[in-house]
C-alpha cells in the first residue's frame, strides 16, 4: 500500500503545481491499482503493483507507436511524457545485455535445447524480470537463444 500513499502525495503535489498531465497520469495509475485490488478482493502485493504498472506502461507504449504511425505529433509528445511519469514508479529497467545474461542462465538451469522448450524457459524467466523488462524483448531473446 506504500505505492498508493506515494501516488496520493504525488497527486497533491501535482494539484498544487497545477500540473495537469502528471495529475492525470497519477490518477489513472491509482485507479488501475484500486480496480485491481477490487478485482482480486485483497490488498495488492508489491509484485501485483509492478504488474499493474507494467500494464499501464505497455498500454502507453502501444499508443505511442500507433500515434507515430498516424503522424500525430501532438499525441506522441504527450504519450512520451506520460511514459516518463509511469516509469518513475517502476523499478529500474534491465538493459538488453542483462536480460540476455538472465536468458542464458535460465536456459542452462532448465536444460533447454530447442524451440520445444520455449514455454519452459519463459515460465522460469518471466517471474525474475517482472516489471523490469519488456516481455517482447524477453520473448525475442529467448527465441534467438533457442534457435
UniProtKB/TrEMBL annotation:
Any GO MF annotation of the entry: carbon-nitrogen ligase activity, with glutamine as amido-N-donor
Source domain of life: Bacteria
PANTHER family: ALTERED INHERITANCE OF MITOCHONDRIA PROTEIN 41, MITOCHONDRIAL (PTHR28055:SF1)
Protein name, as recorded: Glutaminyl-tRNA synthase b subunit
Gene3D superfamilies in the record: 1.10.10.410, Uncharacterised protein YqeY/AIM41 PF09424, N-terminal domain (1.10.1510.10)
Amino acid at each position: 500500500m506504500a505505492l498508493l500513499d506515494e501516488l496520493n502525495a504525488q497527486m497533491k503535489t501535482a494539484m498544487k503545481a497545477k500540473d495537469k498531465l502528471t495529475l492525470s497520469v497519477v490518477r489513472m495509475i491509482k485507479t488501475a491499482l484500486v480496480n485491481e485490488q477490487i478485482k482480486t478482493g485483497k490488498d495488492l502485493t508489491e509484485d501485483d503493483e509492478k504488474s499493474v504498472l507494467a500494464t499501464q506502461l505497455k498500454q502507453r507504449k502501444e499508443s505511442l507507436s500507433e500515434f507515430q504511425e498516424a503522424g500525430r505529433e501532438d499525441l506522441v509528445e504527450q504519450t512520451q511524457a506520460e511514459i516518463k511519469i509511469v516509469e518513475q514508479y517502476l523499478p529500474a529497467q534491465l538493459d538488453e545485455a542483462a536480460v540476455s545474461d538472465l536468458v542464458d542462465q535460465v536456459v542452462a538451469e532448465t536444460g533447454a535445447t530447442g524451440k520445444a522448450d520455449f514455454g519452459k524457459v519463459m515460465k522460469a524467466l518471466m517471474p525474475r524480470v517482472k516489471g523490469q523488462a519488456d516481455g517482447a524483448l524477453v520473448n525475442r531473446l529467448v527465441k534467438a537463444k533457442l534457435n
